[in-house]
Amino acid sequence: MARTQIWAHRGSSAIQAENTIPAFEEAARVGADGIELDVQLTADGKLIVIHDEKTDRTTREQGWVHQLTADKLRSMNAAAFRKELPATKIPYLDEVIDLIKPTNMTMNIELKNGLIQAPGMEQMLWQLAQDMGMQERIFFSSFNHYSIRTLLELAPQAHCGLLYQCGIVDPWLYAGRVGAQAIHPYAGNLEIPNLISDCHKNGIAVHAWTINDIKKIKQAIQLGTDAIITDKPDLALKILNETPS
Question: 37: which strand partners?
């Protein structure tokens, strides 16, 4: 059984402000196998790294990401919700790729295009991955499975995972129909009997989110989860290293 990978959810977001360069730097520093991040399109067509469709939760400023220019968004403090941390910018996606490229880390890029449609995002992302020579190290995921299908129609060789909360029967069959190589389920789904083994029998990887509890991290490792997406990669790595293989 392959070693479980530890992916830092929005970077090391328990320590640094989520989806910022300091959070991704911290993930690399502690030895995470990968990072997970969220990408949206700005009003002027730039790929920017932020989770929420609105800016108020993390920046304390009002606005919809898709209605604001990149310059306006980058004038905001992405760490405003973490008063103990210094101010930092919302990063461009290519900045994060530049940071991760010299490492051996995987990037899980979530397309945030469910609530707000972003036509053309799939093409832009695949082109950027190719231009930066990172297409083999990037996993694309989304709750918008139509978007994943669009990406796979553009690039059948792209590594893609289907994000979901709950309620998919036989998700390995569903993933196969879409053409995805992985499912990205909410961690509670790991309690479904034989979920991981059935996925593996059908060539589908399981990358589960967001697992921060010690007991649940141990359980996910013991079940053979391919990747654990966590706000606490340092904790998850410690548990992984203490768990008999």
Answer: 109
User: Shortest CA distance to 151 belongs to which of 121, 128, 130?
Assistant: 121
Confidence (pTM): 0.98
CATH homologous superfamily, domain 5-40+93-242: Phosphatidylinositol (PI) phosphodiesterase (3.20.20.190)
Residue 8, CA distances (Å) to 32, 60, 165, 176, 211 in order: 6, 24, 19, 26, 10
Confidence bin at 46 (pLDDT 50/70/90): very high
How distant, in Å, are the alpha carbons of 22, 171, 207 from that of 182?
Answer: 28, 9, 7
Tokens 């950027």, located at residue: 128
Alpha-carbon distance of 130 to 64, in angstroms, equals 29
- 65: closest CA among 53, 76, 74, 57? 53
Residues forming the active site: 9, 51
